[in-house]
């Protein structure tokens, strides 16, 4: 740069005086904090990526996650050589950790793109600082979720039979199966999430390209930026595209998790065969996704000292969303219990009572504690403003949501119609290895993301700053 | 960089988005047509000042959605009626079970059409562009705002255009090699 004029410092601490179109009625002062200028935003966020030294905590965390990633892929490798017999599942419980993990991960994936799409459509300015890594969370969690239906197959190498393609066997997928719908739903959601994420990243890659000092970084970010140069027309097209994708994402998100709900609801197994499943699954997905977003927000804010961009207001808003979704979920539990009684169907009633009093009762009551009772603490303003407590609650919620899926999946199968066909499920070490390994792999992907990509959108922060100054 | 036939144009650098919008409007008013504005963020009012808004993407999304949805439904319908009919108890093929996959593919078609539309209509990926020859242009992705009047403009004149840009009070005006 050969410019000599001083950088334009804009007094960022001033409260917003005009409600720009991005504002709504929100007090924008709480969204960005401290004296900020376009240059300081770029410096702060691109500095994380371009820093020559990798922080020590990152290396330690990366080593730990790499070890778990090896456990994950090692366990999958062993699974592929030995077959699903290494897991604890067997008739009558043929879906256990595999599908529990699948539903859990896909639920976490649900909210990232949803958060940024809805906040984009409703022009909520506070979304700008959290949307980037919420989208990253979606892409990674979805990629992991998509692995589970494949690895739970007896012959996983034939998974591509789900796709309709001309083949010499003359075979076609069973179109009326929700498992085939799942294939298309995950495919569409993965592509949309990736594109939504990438469109947001393009201008930031251009910034990194222009600021990188090392040749290798310049080439890599230059290729990723696709030659982005900030042309007015390109910005306008990108904005138009983001609006369209956001509009397409919302119904897609709802449909994807509804299809996951239908995987269960179309079976006649007691405890699954219920029309409430699709909306109930969507609510559960939002709930656990918001909780995971909260976990990651708090960790990143702490690790990279991002208090200027991610303020207490962000945490407060996320906590309120979690609370609202938790109430919808609690209502769904009550309706499920009521419908079991109201159906007068002895199998439905038995499954419901068995969940509360049977061999898996500790799982049921733990999940009620984690998912229904603990989140009620979020009514308190003091709790919503304490990152430590919020972090704890968000972890508890995600444990609870995993237990919920486990309870839903296993208890319905282990005692269905005929007592002679009842049985128990106990996990093996391989079940645990794949669950814990998948969490490590998720962390591994996230760590790579925060080290090599801007974890907050710089262009959106500049926009936010401009509007905070009171328009152009 | 190698010099081409002549300069690509004149590049004026501004420090604030409002100045860029004003400059674009003034240049438009002065009769310039072949120009580009560069900014590190989407600037409101800029595209209106340049009168170069692209309104095609929604149409592309619609077309992509129709192609995806109708295509997915057609594949499924042909497979259940012509290629692999399953006759269970004389029941005819039913369409409702084919809707979810068709819906997902409708969205996928629209998404791909939008993405390809953004890239192709913007002429991206294009890793080389004459404006990158300017040493200070890297600031266009950080905190500076640029207006480039291209030499290809019929009203372009190296001296007069420079004088015109100077009176808009930019930080600099520089010639860009093509």
Give a description of the structure:
The complex is a heterodimer of chains A (472) and B (178). With 472 residues, chain A is mostly helical. Chain A has a single domain (29-468), classed as Formate dehydrogenase/DMSO reductase domain (Formate dehydrogenase/DMSO reductase fold, Up-down Bundle), CATH 1.20.1630. Chain A contains 15 helices and no strands. Chain A has helices at 38-50, 56-82, 97-121, 128-151, 178-211, 215-225, 232-265, 277-304, 312-343, 346-357, 361-373, 381-384, 387-414, 429-452, 458-468. In chain A, α5 crosses α6 (215-225), α8 runs antiparallel to α13 and α9 packs across α10. The longest helix of chain A is centred in the middle third of the chain and has 34 residues, at 178-211. Chain A starts with 37 loop residues before the first helix and ends with a helix. Chain B has 178 residues and is of the alpha+beta class. Chain B folds into two domains: 7-54 and 128-177, no CATH class; 57-121, no CATH class. Helices cover 43% and strands 13% of the residues of chain B. A four-stranded antiparallel beta sheet of chain B has the order 2-3-1-4, with helices on one face. In chain B, α3 (57-83) runs antiparallel to α4 (99-121). The longest helix of chain B is centred in the middle third of the chain and has 27 residues, at 57-83. The termini of chain B are close together. Classes of the chains: A mainly alpha (472), B alpha+beta (178). At the A-B interface, α1, α5, α7 and α15 of A face α1, β2, α2, α3 and α4 of B.
């Amino acid at each position: 740069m050969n410019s000599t004029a001083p950088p334009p410092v804009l007094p960022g601490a001033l409260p917003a005086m005009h409600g720009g179109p991005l504002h709504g009625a929100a007090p924008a002062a709480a969204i960005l904090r401290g004296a900020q200028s376009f240059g300081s935003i770029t410096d702060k966020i691109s500095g994380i990526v371009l820093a020559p030294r990798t922080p020590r905590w990152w290396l330690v965390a990366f080593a730990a996650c790499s070890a778990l990633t090896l456990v994950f892929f090692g366990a999958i490798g062993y699974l592929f050589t030995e077959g699903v017999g290494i897991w604890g599942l067997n008739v009558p419980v043929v879906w256990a950790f595999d599908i529990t993990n699948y539903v859990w991960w896909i639920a976490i994936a649900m909210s990232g793109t949803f958060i940024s799409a809805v906040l984009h459509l409703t022009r909520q300015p506070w979304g700008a600082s959290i949307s980037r890594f919420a989208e990253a969370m979606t892409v990674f969690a979805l990629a992991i979720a998509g692995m589970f239906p494949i690895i739970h197959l007896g012959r996983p190498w034939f998974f591509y039979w789900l796709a309709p393609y001309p083949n010499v066997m003359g075979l076609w997928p069973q179109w009326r199966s929700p498992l085939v719908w799942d294939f298309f739903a995950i495919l569409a959601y993965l592509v949309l999430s990736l594109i939504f994420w990438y469109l947001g990243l393009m201008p930031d890659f251009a910034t990194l390209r222009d600021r990188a000092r090392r040749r290798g970084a310049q080439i890599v970010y230059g290729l990723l930026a696709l030659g982005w140069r900030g042309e007015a027309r390109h910005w306008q097209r990108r904005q138009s595209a983001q609006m369209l994708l956001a509009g397409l994402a919302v119904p897609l998100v709802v449909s994807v998790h509804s299809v996951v709900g239908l995987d269960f609801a179309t079976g006649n197994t007691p405890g699954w065969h219920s029309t409430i499943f699709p909306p109930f699954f969507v609510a559960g997905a939002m709930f656990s996704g918001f909780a995971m977003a909260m976990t990651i927000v708090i960790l990143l804010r702490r690790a990279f000292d991002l208090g200027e961009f991610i303020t207490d207001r962000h945490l407060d808003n996320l906590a309120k969303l979690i609370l609202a979704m938790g109430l919808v979920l609690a209502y769904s539990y009550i309706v499920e219990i009521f419908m079991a009684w109201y159906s007068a169907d002895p199998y439905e009633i038995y499954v419901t009572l068995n969940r509360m009093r049977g061999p898996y009762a500790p799982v049921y009551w733990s999940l009620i504690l984690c998912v229904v009772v603990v989140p009620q603490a979020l009514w308190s303003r003091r709790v919503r403003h304490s990152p430590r407590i919020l972090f704890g609650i968000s972890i508890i919620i995600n444990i609870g949501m995993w237990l919920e899926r486990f309870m839903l999946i296993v208890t319905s199968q282990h005692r269905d119609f005929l007592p002679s066909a009842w049985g128990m499920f106990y996990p093996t070490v391989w079940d645990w290895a794949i669950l814990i390994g998948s969490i490590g792999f998720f962390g591994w992907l996230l760590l790579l993301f925060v080290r090599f990509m801007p974890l907050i959108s710089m262009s959106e922060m500049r926009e936010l700053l401009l509007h905070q100054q009171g328009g152009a | 960089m190698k010099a081409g036939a002549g300069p690509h144009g004149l590049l004026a650098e501004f420090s604030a988005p409002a100045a860029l919008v004003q400059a674009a409007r003034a240049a438009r008013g002065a009769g310039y047509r072949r120009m580009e504005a560069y900014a590190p963020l989407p600037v409101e009012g800029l595209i209106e000042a340049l009168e170069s808004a692209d309104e095609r993407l929604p149409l592309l999304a619609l077309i992509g959605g129709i192609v995806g949805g109708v295509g997915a439904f057609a594949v499924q319908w042909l497979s259940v009626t012509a290629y692999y009919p399953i006759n269970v108890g004389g029941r005819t093929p039913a369409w409702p079970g084919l809707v979810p996959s068709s819906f997902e593919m409708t969205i996928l078609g629209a998404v791909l059409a939008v993405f390809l539309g953004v890239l192709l209509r913007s002429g991206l990926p294009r890793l080389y562009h004459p404006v990158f020859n300017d040493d200070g242009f890297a600031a266009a992705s950080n905190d500076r705002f640029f207006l480039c009047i291209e030499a290809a403009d019929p009203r372009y004149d190296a001296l007069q255009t420079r004088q015109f840009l100077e009176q808009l009070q930019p930080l600099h005006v520089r010639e860009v090699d093509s």
